[in-house]
């Protein structure tokens, strides 16, 4: 268990932010998951005081760092959010290099399981509350957002209502999570179809997203001068 007082307040961006509060971070919270190769583990980071905490589900990316792409990553982000009043719940997805698992054919990056991890967390918030000391009764289950970086951005968009059609066999995935009311997509995967490079097609061959079905409000952040071969 970790406690700290996060002091960065966004002054460089000149964005008004409420004063930070001390936070506590607890991991791993283990949720048994029938049929999953391993149990679902997550980190829970919350302000040390306060009630009716809005929830942010944080989905990690798929970089080369085993620790970043797991519940161990994104400390500056989850600490900032928690210090300003949010409960941040971040799982280690099956695709994490930390676990060393190989995805079954047709399920590259365990991309469907990534979305299902977030649904499992929402289904087991009672267990999360009772496992983390001092958290019982403090989560506001009516205010849930999902945030994701890179491959986690794909996870977020699928939960927010985007659909995906696998160009190899035409199978479609469309499973929006209505308990999620808002989203943040950080450097997401982007368009599929003719907009994706050959390198990208080899890395995410399942991917051809349709964002026209994504009706849940979301903040999408990307670099318009970035050049990424995907």
Automatic annotation (TrEMBL):
Organism domain of life: Eukaryota
Alphabetical list of InterPro entries matching this protein: AB_hydrolase_1, AB_hydrolase_fold
Occurrences of domain AB hydrolase-1 (ranges): 56-209
Alphabetized SUPFAM superfamilies for the sequence: alpha/beta-Hydrolases
Name of protein: AB hydrolase-1 domain-containing protein
Source species of the chain: Imshaugia aleurites
């Amino acid at each position: 268990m970790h406690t700290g007082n996060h002091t960065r307040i966004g002054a460089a961006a000149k964005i008004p932010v409420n004063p930070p509060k001390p936070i506590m971070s607890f991991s791993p919270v283990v949720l048994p998951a029938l049929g999953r190769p391993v149990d679902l583990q997550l980190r829970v980071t919350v302000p040390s005081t306060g009630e009716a905490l809005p929830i942010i589900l944080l989905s990690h990316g798929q970089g080369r760092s085993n620790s970043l792409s797991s519940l161990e990553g994104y400390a500056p982000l989850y600490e900032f959010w928690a210090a300003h009043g949010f409960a941040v719940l971040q799982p280690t997805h099956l695709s994490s290099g930390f676990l060393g698992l190989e995805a079954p054919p047709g399920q590259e990056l365990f991309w469907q399981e990534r979305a299902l991890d977030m649904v499992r967390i929402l289904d087991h918030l009672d267990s999360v509350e009772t496992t983390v000391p001092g958290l019982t009764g403090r989560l506001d289950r009516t205010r849930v957002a999902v945030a994701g970086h890179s491959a986690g951005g794909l996870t977020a968009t699928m939960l927010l209502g985007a659909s995906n059609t696998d160009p190899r066999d035409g199978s479609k995935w469309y499973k929006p999570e209505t308990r999620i009311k808002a989203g943040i997509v950080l450097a997401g995967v982007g368009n599929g179809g003719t907009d994706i490079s050959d390198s990208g097609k080899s890395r995410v061959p399942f991917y051809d997203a349709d964002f026209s079905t994504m009706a849940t409000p979301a903040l999408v952040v990307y670099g318009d001068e970035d050049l990424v071969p995907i």
